[in-house]
Amino acid sequence: MKAGGFTDSPTDVMRKQTLDFERSLYETTASLDIPETVMTIAMRDGYESETRVFKPVSAPEAGSPLVVLIYGGGFVVGTSLQLVPFARAIAKAYGATVVAVSYRLAPECPFPAAPNDVWDSLKWVAANATSLGADPSQGFVVGGVSAGGNLTCVAAQKAVKEKLSPPLTGIWVCIPVTTVTVEGLPEKYRDDWVSRTQNADALILSTADIDFLRDAYEPDAASEDFSPFVYPDVAADIPPAFIQVAGMDPMRDDALIYRRYLQEHGVKTRLNVYPGVPHSHHTLLPTLESSQNFRRDVVLGFGWLLGHELTADEVDEVAGAALDLCH
């Protein structure tokens, strides 16, 4: 396996390859008998965004927590199928109602289409929680992977600033991008942003790939819709964050610095670091022990966010089939 890969193929080819992979993952993942519904949510411009809803067979007596998941793919590829294994596992393990949202992709729909779509979806989900069968008072968590991690960070920031009701109670920030230039970071952190250089030629995602994706997405690095560092005055009210980081990821320090930023504003955090592995190893190198631990840790981390912690053995028993865990 060589470094990177996003710069090797036309976008339409990458999208087809990604869709084929995600559809295969979807079709071969254990359903755990979790009912699933496909619906659309109207965006601010009338576009209908595909959304998948996963409901527990029987909700907890206290009510079903609400979870929103956001896929990754560099803002250029990816579908709502990507996080289905986690959606099913979280619904099964915690009796949660899980909503996997979508957003339009670059370069056809560059920044800020993605954060606008995610924010519109999040507001709709919050307003329609009851009709979805969820009770956000039992937990309202949003989370995402890679590009979805960025979209999670900025949605959490906006949710505090704009007083989203009901409020978020937790965020899952998985291998995120939080800046595209060192100038996009608060000055105090800039000397510690070294992983773009240290891991420039990493497997799966290289720094050249990140630059390619940045040019396709065209983000405003100083915008509240891309940078989670824009409003430090509201940072203290961001809910507890579960953060996962890959040690060989060029975006490693994006996540570590974001965690420091939250901690310094008094936000509770839980950090899991996976040394010596690249970006998205949990999906693209699935048989590694680290990858299996990572997938299990996602479900364990949601337990921490929801105030209903399980043991690793309990996760394996209840949801391991959806996570493809070896025993």
SSE blueprint:
Blueprint lengths: L10 H18 L7 E7 L5 E7 L11 E5 L13 H11 L2 E5 L11 H15 L1 H4 L7 E6 L1 H15 L8 E5 L20 H4 L8 H11 L23 E6 L5 H13 L4 E6 L6 H4 L4 H18 L5 H12 L4
Parallel strand pairs: 3-4, 3-5, 5-6, 6-7, 7-8
Antiparallel strand pairs: 1-2, 2-4
Helix pairs in contact: 2-10, 2-11, 3-5, 10-11
Descriptive account of the structure:
GO terms for molecular function: hydrolase activity. Residues 67-282 form the Alpha/beta hydrolase fold-3 domain. The protein is an alpha/beta fold and 327 residues long. Helix content is 38%, strand content 14%. β7 (241-246), α8 and β8 (269-274) form a beta-alpha-beta unit. The two termini are 27 Å apart. The relative contact order is 0.14.
- Report the CATH topology name: Rossmann fold
Radius of gyration: 18 Å
- How many domain units? 1
Shape: globular
Query: What is the structural class?
Result: alpha/beta
Largest sheet data: 8 strands, mixed
State the CATH superfamily name. Alpha/Beta hydrolase fold, catalytic domain
Q: What order do the helices and strands follow?
A: HEEEHEHHEHEHHEHEHHH
Distance between the termini: 27 Å
The CATH architecture classification is 3-Layer(aba) Sandwich
Percentage of helical residues? 25-40%
Strand content: 5-15%
CATH class: Alpha Beta
Oligomer: single chain
Arithmetic mean of pLDDT: 96
| Largest sheet: spatial strand order | 1-2-4-3-5-6-7-8
Q: How large is the count of helical segments? A: 11
- In total, the number of strands is 8
